[in-house]
Structures are given as structure tokens and as C-alpha cells.
Amino acid sequence: MNRLVIAVDGPAGAGKSTISKAIAKRLNIEYIDTGAMYRAVTLKLLRSNVDFDDEASIKDILSKIDINLSEGKVYLDGEDVSEEIRMPYISSRVSEVAAMPLVREKLVEIQRKMASTKSVIMDGRDIGTNVLRDEANLKVYLTASVRERGNRRYKELKEKGLEVTLEDICREIENRDKYDMSREINPLCKAEDAVLVDTTGKSIEQVVQEIIRLVGNIGGKSNVL
Ligand code: CDP
Ligand code: CDP
Fold first, then answer.
1. Cα of 124 to ligand 1 centre, how many Å?
2. What residues does the Cytidylate kinase domain cover (predicted)?
3. Can you tell me which atom of ligand 2 is nearest the CA of 12?
4. CA-to-CA distance for 49 and 32, rounded, in angstroms?
5. Ligand 2 atom at minimum distance from 33 CA
6. Which residues pair with 33 in a beta bridge?
7. What is the pTM for the complete model shown?
8. What's the CA gap between 46 and 39, in Å, rounded?
């Protein structure tokens, strides 16, 4: 096999980034978090105070924006925004921004470029169905029950000292799933050729092992990793 190209999609809190990061480390390949890119654009638009209907201004902002992913950090115009983009005020607006054709066009182009020359594992919502539809040699669709996904997010936010309720988090996740699954352009759905992995009740290590096994079987061969 030449390049290893793994696409991971699924709803919020399914474990995409945790699992993808662990696999990248184990296989010594690059991890690309496309959700972080949509979050960074959302932060930029909110900071710019632009009206979300104002296409001309958004086009102008996108033409100048600089988003960089490096060593697990996310940089927006040179500033480390890794923490800021995980805040609930970004989570509650990001799906609106991700549904904008201009934004998707711009980010998909960057994402394809990032994955064009090296072995990568890329996670998001439309990686197996769109961004790396033809390039991926393994597609995984990760999911888990809403309650479990809500609980995972709740724990994370509590640990950061944020005042949130489990009900609010579950509602936010369900709203975002609905929005992401029903938008017109590249909605979240399982690619026909993706392997469905339900992570409910599974540990991170169990899921990582399951996917490493799938990597070993790419092309119907038992590849030695
Ligand atoms: O980590 P979490 O699952 O909460 O979300 P994320 O991966 O950071 O993605 C945030 C949002 O960006 C999603 O809810 C989608 O609206 C959007 N997104 C997308 O539309 N396409 C992608 N490839 C990745 C994210
Ligand atoms: O990227 P995505 O929104 O799909 O999920 P994530 O941010 O990777 O995972 C959400 C949380 O679930 C993290 O705190 C993980 O440690 C946790 N997790 C887990 O407890 N068990 C799993 N099998 C996978 C993730």
C-alpha cells in the first residue's frame, strides 16, 4: 500500500477526534481535525460581527483567513485558539456556519490539499462521502447513543470548570446532529463503503484496536503494521 488515507465521520461526541488522534500516533501518520477548521471560521465570523446573510463580507473574510493545524493546536491568523473554539458559544453556532456553501468550498479545498501527499487520518462529517470520497482506503463511521455522547461532553466541560447541565448538552448535540444531517450540501451521513463502529459502552482502547484491525485488512490483505 502506498499512502494510508483514513476517513472518520460521525456525530458530535462519538469519539472521532480522540480515536483518530490515538490512531495517528500509533501509525505515525498525520491527524487532520476538520471540525476545528469550521470552529475557527465560526470564531472569526463572530469576532468580525458580520451578518451571517452578508455573503460579500463573508467572502472577503474567507479570502484573508489563515487557519493552521499544527501539533494538536489550532491557529487562527497566527493566534492559538485551540481552547476558545471548544466553548459552548462556538458549538451552538458552528453548524450554521458549516452549512454555508462559501465556507465549505473554501475549507474542503484546504482539506484536500492537506491530504494530497501524505498518509493521514481525517475526521469530520463529510470526509468519506465528499472530501476524501475517492482517496480514502478506509472509511469509518463512528457513533454512540446521544446519552453517552452527551455524558462525554458534559464531563469534559465540567472538568474545564464550566457551568453546564447534562440536559443542555444533550439538547445541543441533538440539535447539531439534526442540522448537520439535514443541510443541503454534504450532510452528515454514513458513506456506503464506510464501516459502522458503535462506541457506546466501549473504551477508547477497544475502539482504537477495532480500527487498527480494519487498517490491517485494507485491500482484503492482512497487512503487517
Ligand atoms: O467535536 P464535535 O463532534 O463536537 O464537532 P466538530 O468535529 O468539532 O465539528 C463541529 C461542527 O463543524 C459540526 O457540528 C459540523 O457542523 C461542522 N463540520 C462539518 O460540517 N464538516 C466537517 N467535515 C467537520 C465539521
Ligand atoms: O470528536 P468527537 O466529537 O466525535 O468526540 P471526542 O471529542 O473525541 O470524544 C468525546 C469524549 O468522549 C472525549 O472526552 C473522550 O475521551 C471520550 N470517549 C470515551 O469516553 N470513550 C470512547 N470510546 C471514545 C471517546
1. 6
2. 6-215
3. 3
4. 28
5. 1
6. 123
7. 0.94
8. 11
Q: Is 24 annotated as a binding residue?
A: no
**pLDDT grade for 219, boundaries at 50, 70 and 90:** confident
> Would you state the CATH architecture of domain 5-33+87-212?
3-Layer(aba) Sandwich (3.40)
For the chain, give the longest Cα–Cα distance.
53
Cell output for 156: 469534559
Cα(142)–Cα(163) distance, integer angstroms: 28
Which grid cell is 224? 503487517
Quick check: 201 and 149 in contact, CB under 8 A? no
Q: Is 215 in the pocket of ligand 1 (CB under 6 A)?
A: no
Distance (Å) from CA 49 to ligand 2 centroid: 32
Distance of CA 211 to the CA centre of its chain: 17
Could you give the CA distance from residue 125 to residue 123 in angstroms, rounded to a whole number?
7
| Grid coordinates of 215 | 487498517
How do residues 73-104 score in pLDDT, each as one tens digit? 999 999 999 999 999 899 999 999 999 999 99
Evaluate: CB of 39 within 6 angstroms of ligand 2.
no
ipTM: 0.96
Domains of the chain by residue range:
5-33+87-212
Cβ atoms of 142 and 14 within 8 Å: the answer is yes
Q: Does residue 50 have a pLDDT over 80?
A: yes
Distances (CA, A) of 117 to 3, 28, 138, 183, 214: 8, 15, 17, 30, 22
